[in-house]
Each structure stands twice: as C-alpha cells, then as structure tokens.
Design brief:
- The complex is a heterodimer of chains A (about 425) and B (about 170).
- Helices cover about 25% and strands about 20% of the residues of chain A.
- Chain A has eight helices and 18 strands.
- In chain A, the strands form five sheets. In chain A, strands 9-11-10-16-15-14 form a six-stranded mixed beta barrel. A four-stranded antiparallel beta sheet of chain A has the order 5-6-7-18.
- In chain A, a hairpin with a 2-residue loop joins strand 3 and strand 4.
- Chain B is of the alpha+beta class and about 170 residues long.
- The chains are: A alpha+beta (about 425), B alpha+beta (about 170).
- Chains A and B meet through helix 1, helix 2, helix 3 and helix 8 of A and helix 1, strand 1, strand 3 and strand 6 of B.
Amino acid sequence: MGRLARQRGGASLQTAVLLVPVVFGLMGFAVDLGRLYSARNDLKIAAASMAEAAAAELAGSTVSIERATAAGQLAISNANGRGNLYDFGGNQIGQSNGVLNSEAPVLNFFDTAAAAIGSEGVSGGEAGSTTARYVKATVRGEAPLIFWRFLSLAQEGRLNLAAESVAGVSAPVCQACGIEPIGVQAISQDDTTHFGFVVGSRYTLGYLCTGGQSQSALANSVQRVPYVILNRYNESAAVLADELTQIYRIGALGMPANADSAYSCVRYNAGETIWVNAAPLGCNQNRVNPQITTLLCGLAARFDNATVPASCNTVAETETVLSASPIDSDIADIDDYTAYTGNRRRIITVPVIDLASTSTMVVLGFRQFLLEPALSDVTINPTDQNGRFVAMYLGSVMPVRSGRIDGCTLATGPGKVVHQ
Amino acid sequence: MSRARQGGNTILEAVLLLPVLCMLLFGMVDLARLSWTYFTLQKILYGVGRYAATQTAVNFCDDADPILADAKNLALRGIGNAAGELQLAALTADLIQVRLERVQPDSGALGDCECTAAGCDNGQGGRGPDFVVVSVNGGYSVRTNIPFVPSETFLLRPVVRVPYGAL
C-alpha cells in the first residue's frame, strides 16, 4: 500500500509537470498575446504617422524622397520625449532598447497605389523621387514574452513584430481649402488635363484688364494668362479684419482656416465672383487696384519675409502675417522643376476658371504653379502695372493640405494625403 | 495508507494549491486588463489626433473649440457628443492633452508651436502645426487587484504623434 501511495504521489507530480506548460501556454495567451497586440498597435500607429507625414512631402522634385524620409522620421523622433514609442511606451522605434531591438523603419516609394499596396516583400516596382506619389512605411520591433518564453516555441523571450502602412495622394479633390483664390483663366477648356497649359512652361499671370489694348507677357515666359482674385473677403473676421490685410495674408499663406468653407475653400464647378474691390481696370490705364498690388506683396513674402515692399507699407498688420510666413528655402530662378529643392512655399494651388470676368466664373479644376522671381531679382515685383508675375505650370505635383474628395469625379488634379 | 488519510492529503494539496491558482488566474486576468486598457487608451488618443488633424479650421488653442470637443467625444465615447458611455472609466475629455509641434527651420527638429499669431493659433491668423501630439494629462491610473498580492497603481502614459493634414 505504501508503494502505491508513493506511486500516486509520482502521478500527481507527473500531472503537475504536464500541466505547467499548458498553464504557461494559456497564461501566455492572456498576457503575452495581449502585450503583443498592444505593441503591434503601437507600431501600426507609428507606421501610419510616418507614412502620412512622408506622403505630404511628395512634390515631384528630385529632393522629394529625401524630404519625405526626413518628415517620416520626425513622427518617431523622441528627441523631445513625445515620439511614437511601442510596448507600453518603453521602447523607441528604430533603435536598440537593451535586449529588445527595433530595426530602422523602411520607407518605400511608389508611383501607383496598386504598387504600394500589392508589393509586400518585393523590392521592385518602386518609384523615383520625381514620380513617387505613395509611400509604404514598414516598422519593426521586438516585443518581450513573459510566459511563452518557457515554452520551446519562443525561448528567446522576444518576438519580432512588424507593421505596415501605406499613404499617398488621393483622387483629385473636389474642394480645395487653404489654397490661393487666384482664378486663372484656362487657355483651352477642351484640354481637361492641363487646360492648355504646358507642364514646365513659364507663364505670365496678369490681372484681368478691360479694353482692347492688352498687356504684354513678362520676359522669359511663353504667354500672358489673365487671372482675377476670387472673392473671399470675410467682413466679419475678428482678426486680420482689414480687407487689404486679408488679401496680404492670402498672398503670403493662402486662405486662412475658417469653420465656414465659403471663406477658406474653393469648390470644383462652383460659380465664383471677383473680389468686390478688385475690379479690373482698363488695360490702357497701366495700373491695378491696391488689392492686386497687395496680393503680389503677399506672394513676394514667400521669397522675402524680412521687409514689406514699399507699395504695401500702409497695409495693416503685415508684421503679424510675416511672423507666420516662412520663406521658401529655394528662391532661385528655376527652369527645370525637378531641380527645385525648396519647402514648397513657392508652389501655389489655384482654381482654373472658364473665363476671367466680372460676372460669374466656373471653377474647372485646380492646378499648381511655381512662383518665379522677377528678372534679375530675388522676389516678384509687387508694383507691376498689370499685377503680373511669372509662374511655371506644374500640373498637379503635390497634395493639398486640406480638401474634400466627395461630390465630383475628376480625372486630374491635386489630391490630398490619405492612408490605408 | 488508508483511503481517509489519502483524502486528507488531497484536500491539503488543494488548500495549498488553490491560493496559487487563484493568484495566477486573477493575475492573468488583471494583466490582460492592463494590456487592454493601454491598448484602448492608445486607440483613443490616436482617434483624437487623427480626427482633429484632418478637420478644417480646428483651433487647437481654444479649449472650447467644437471640432476638438467632437474629436475627443468621438474617441472617448464612440459618438460625437457627450451623451455616450465612456470607453475607459474616468477618462474624460478634459484629461486629453493636445500639444502642437512645428519643425524648427534652423535645426529641422520638432519644437513646441506656441499659441500665437506667429505660431499655431489660427484664431489669430497663424498657420497650422506640423504635428499634433495627444496624451493623457498626468497619465491614466490603473490599479491592480490580484489576490494575495499588494495592490499597486500604475500610471499609463501613452503618447501619440500624428502629422497635421488640414488647415
């Protein structure tokens, strides 16, 4: 009987030994798996933030990928202690964290969404800096295992997790916000892709004038194209209330944020009217209203924000606007857009309209231009007699910062950053 | 050994093992709860950041901004008003901290974007930030409740940084 009891004790021990891995496995499901899910969620958020930040920098120049990579890295930079971390906020992404490592995140760039989404694990099909429109961020990090490390499957005590996110430029926006409400007349309404403009060509954008004697194009541009300022005057504005200040701000920074999209956005196919006090004058008068000169002063602030041009020194609160207006980091006269290395401050997104006039105008779409400095100058000339300045037509090279893609189906035009 | 003495041994073993098993079981549940809470917290913060960073005309410098309030309510309660049930107990909108960051032109690093006209206060004519950072002011406190183990309070401090993609 005594031997039987000892045998029974042995059986209990055997049962306990058999049960330990089962218990640890089950506890691993509750504890380790939960922790892995949480860490993977952290990595997913980091990947999404990186991809979105990078995609916003894709502007079709030779430095776009370089700028996009730098922007993506900022999303996980923990220099000020606020970066996206993982595993309960304890580990930095892209760095060694003691026993746990996180490989440097990888950003891959593509020219189509299909290539970006469908190219998992494939290195081919990537786009160059001038054609990249989508970015895939891959973030990896090791997460620790507490209970599963006692099982033969995960004795290293850590598991490498990966998360991916794709972001890129959406379909063309139907409503663009924060852009410049400079209604540029289409050269050809039949050409729905470029409205008669030629990518890479420089145009003189001149304010609409009346009468027969048309103003000429500026030097180093192929032709003069008329434009008008679309009415976005906010008479009830609490700050920057003065009309000219508002135009100056629009020139320097685009339309300001406003809960009412009628003041901050332009919509495709909408009827637009000219800014009330910016009516065109006779071409033979060789002058424009102060509103147009002020707009050009604002545009000039993108090249030089240290001084207010003399023609605008009576405009109120220009210093306030200038304090928020960084200049472009590349203000050189550029013939080939791909050589542009700036921070995109010189790129304006404008509505293209059917016919510049004082009656209702229809928005045909949105396109982008690169502002060029005046001949032998480092900025544009705000005192031009016809409100003229030279801008290179770019098509739709970069996403707008804010807008809506619902309500229309456009084949061409700038989109906004979206992520999968 | 008699059957009665064997039964006594079994009870004794059970009495000895039961607290350990209880501790393991409840500890497992509590640790899972901790993970779930952190996961949910992170999701809420990302929800606030993502929503607010993609809406037009959010004034981050105005605590009463209706869009920001909607973003918080949506993330905290699943709907855009204050009527829904909180996903995490005691995590209310006033505890959600939203900070603004902008790339410093000199260093290329991220720095605070002040609520001024030159900074990120669009109510004064400023332009938007480059990144929005969302966190819980003071951290979210979670208390463990494991039998036979002294209760301990953890402060969860997740931080989410999302790029700003609107005006």
